[in-house]
């Protein structure tokens, strides 16, 4: 049973990590380099993640500075940002790209808070699926005594509850970040 519990822990932690990555790419009104994680640039004919062709820094609270490693990639970086769903307008001076993060409206903040809740619910569903798989594995093991089955089910449920609480904490922190002006 320890192997299954370890497997369940790993998979539940994976759901938390996926949620953190997803929430990191949600724009909050402050400059956060993680909003560019999903941007891919066509670089020498291959789609390449932006962070592999440029360095991204935050010189001011609402400015992202993108410095390409190769100046020839500058136009492609600008094009990729323009084509993304971020809604940001890059400004290029020939050497670097500046992204000004606009102040968010109250309505926009509330919409993003709803998106955070939806992503958190997806993570919770993933954790519940792991719990179901672990419970099924325990119940199918005919060699385990009844007491061990009950103890294993309790352990899986406690692990699930702890991970659901962790998801709630992650989501509430992101919502708080979104709703503060």
What does this structure look like?
- The chain is an alpha+beta fold and 181 residues long.
- 59% of the residues lie in helices and 15% in strands.
- The protein has five helices and six strands, in the order αββαββαββαα.
- The protein has helices at residues 2-24, 50-53, 74-83, 106-140, 146-179; strands at 40-43, 46-49, 54-60, 63-68, 90-92, 97-100.
- It has a four-stranded antiparallel β-sheet.
- A hairpin with a 4-residue loop joins strand 5 and strand 6 (97-100).
- The mean pLDDT is 88.
- InterPro entries: Ribosome_recyc_fac (IPR002661), Ribosome_recyc_fac_dom (IPR023584), RRF_sf (IPR036191).
- It comes from Leuconostoc gelidum subsp. gelidum.
- Keywords: Cytoplasm, Protein biosynthesis.
- It is found in: Cytoplasm.
What does the oligomeric state look like here? single chain
Continuous helix count: 5
Kindly report the average pLDDT value.
Answer: 88
CA radius of gyration: 22 Å
Structural class: alpha+beta
Q: Which consecutive residue ranges, at least 5 long each, have pLDDT under 50?
A: none
Tags for this model:
181 residues; alpha+beta; four-stranded antiparallel β-sheet; two-stranded antiparallel ribbon; 5 helices; 6 strands; 59% helix; 15% strand; elongated
């Amino acid at each position: 049973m320890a192997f299954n519990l370890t497997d369940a822990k790993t998979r539940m932690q994976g759901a938390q990590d996926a949620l953190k990555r997803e929430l990191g790419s949600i724009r909050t009104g402050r400059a956060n380099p993680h909003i560019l994680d999903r941007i891919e640039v066509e670089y020498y004919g291959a789609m390449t993640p932006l962070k592999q062709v440029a360095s991204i820094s935050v010189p001011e609270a609402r400015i992202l500075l993108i410095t390409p490693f190769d100046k020839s990639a500058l136009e492609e970086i600008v094009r990729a940002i323009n084509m993304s769903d971020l809604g940001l307008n890059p400004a290029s001076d020939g050497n670097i790209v500046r992204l000004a993060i606009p102040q968010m409206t109250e309505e926009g903040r509330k919409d993003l808070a709803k998106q955070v809740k939806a992503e958190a619910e997806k993570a919770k569903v993933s954790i519940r699926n792991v719990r179901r798989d672990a419970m099924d594995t325990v119940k199918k093991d005919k060699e385990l005594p009844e007491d061990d089955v009950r103890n294993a089910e309790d352990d899986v449920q406690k692990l699930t509850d702890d991970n659901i609480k962790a998801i709630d904490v992650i989501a509430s922190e992101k919502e708080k970040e979104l709703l503060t002006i």
